[in-house]
Design brief:
Chain lengths: 281, 281
């Protein structure tokens, strides 16, 4: 089994080496959109090499993690990208790629969240959203500002019109509860690998970039008057911390030990928890 | 045009005179389930006759409203049933039947909410839920108690398996935001009137009764230790009032004036607002 040196481990994240070319291009485009636009606000990734890239003992599961914190003066707390690749006993492979952003409690703007789950080259599950950081039933102005006025519903409808589109319901009710009313949750099954590549390029990719663009334009910038009152930050911090810890628990704590063994899983989860629980304002 | 006497107006609600026999039977069954189980806790309906039953000047729109408040010692604030029937310019008719329940802020249990919208004898839109009264992202124990442990997801899946089932997305993002992760929002189009009658009886009806049964067993009863702390009641009252006023605005304030004229619409909306804004604890 070939060992990677530290530089190779660093490069692994942006290579997305196990996914199809459309899927890779989409992830690279999204990560560059975020890193280009927020460049001056982001610190370099300082994860240890064995967290930036890791694998299991039998070499059947590989994964990469990329985390960059925001500057102390930035509203960005951190951005998190990752991919996981696992050979399946059936001969196929499971590939998951994710990109999410986390804001500090100095602003109450929504975060960005995207998961793409591929259990075969002709299937794709997408969860794409700017999840709210307030109870929308109690804050209709927040709903209007970030969801109605941004017209994210139009993006959801674009994807709904793809003939292969089916709605996807996460088995986790918590995941369903923390997303927005314009969340895109899709299960797409295509007849051929070529058609799936086309769907990713022409539909999933276009919509994902538009939602990320909306997040960058509307949420990642804190304007005068957008700052959260000192006494509301406590509420936001409490809610943020709970959402972060619940989503880590649901996304990773159940699957990583199975895929990478308890020791590696512990290393990765502890690292993500360290960023997630910093709760900077 | 025939005028109704007061007794006839009172009876009109439970007659559901304009909907199909399956639809009528379902509504009568649901209303009796609630009134039988909660009978000792409910005061009689004291709405004025011209609110219990009303129509427009040209006699093309008819509607009925039924509200019963809970006893001062009951956790029930009020229950609200209604139907609306409107002849359409196309020759068909629009029929909407609703049943919802509202708890006091002495308990934080979910309410019950059901709307059935028929724009033709072969089409049906259903919104069926026990909408939460807390921010679920912040209260995972509440999510577990009322949504995971009650297994409401199984009911959603029962309806999803009906071949004519399609997911329905409310045009109002606020309606989408205040429902639970196990909300049933369905648009069903059948080939024939007979098939729709069968779907209502065997699927929509069975599921609606099961969800109402869950609400009656789990939410309508306040057990020792379920009481809400004095200092949390203020939060609940604020949230309840906002949700009630927003849903009235979305459901009625836009459509009633058009269907019944401004004077009647004002009389009905003012009455509902009186109950909704009482905010008893």
């Amino acid at each position: 089994r070939m060992e990677l040196d530290n530089n190779e481990r660093r490069r692994k994240f942006i290579e997305f080496p196990y996914v199809s070319s459309s899927h890779k291009k989409l992830m690279v485009d999204l990560v560059s959109m975020v890193e280009t636009r927020l460049d001056s606000q982001l610190l370099p990734c300082t994860l240890p090499p064995d967290v930036q890239y890791y694998q299991n003992q039998s070499d059947t599961s590989h994964a990469s993690l990329h985390i960059r914190s925001g500057h102390p003066s930035s509203p960005i707390d951190f951005i998190l990208g990752s991919w996981i690749h696992c050979q399946l006993p059936t001969g196929g492979a499971l590939n998951i790629t994710s990109l999410s952003t986390y804001l500090k409690s100095s602003t109450d703007s929504p975060n960005f969240f995207m998961d793409i789950i591929r259990s075969s080259p002709t299937s794709l599950v997408l969860i794409l959203d700017i999840p709210p950081r307030r109870d929308l039933a109690l804050y209709p102005d927040y709903l209007k500002k970030y969801y109605e006025d941004t017209n994210l519903e139009a993006q959801r409808q674009v994807l709904e019109k793809v003939p292969e589109f089916k709605p996807y319901f996460s088995p986790s009710l918590y995941i369903r509860a923390f997303v927005s009313p314009t969340v895109i949750t899709a299960r797409i099954e295509s007849d051929s690998v070529e058609r799936m590549e086309e769907i990713i390029q022409d539909h999933v990719g276009v919509v994902a970039k538009q939602v990320l663009e909306t997040w960058l334009d509307t949420c990642a910038v804190v304007e005068n008057g957008d700052e959260v009152d000192e006494n509301e930050r406590e509420y936001l911090q409490k809610r943020d911390l709970l959402v972060r810890s619940k989503t880590i628990e649901i996304d990773l704590a159940s699957s990583l030990p199975r895929l990478f063994g308890p020791e590696t899983a512990d290393r990765i989860i502890t690292t993500i928890q360290k960023y997630s629980s910093a709760s900077s304002s």
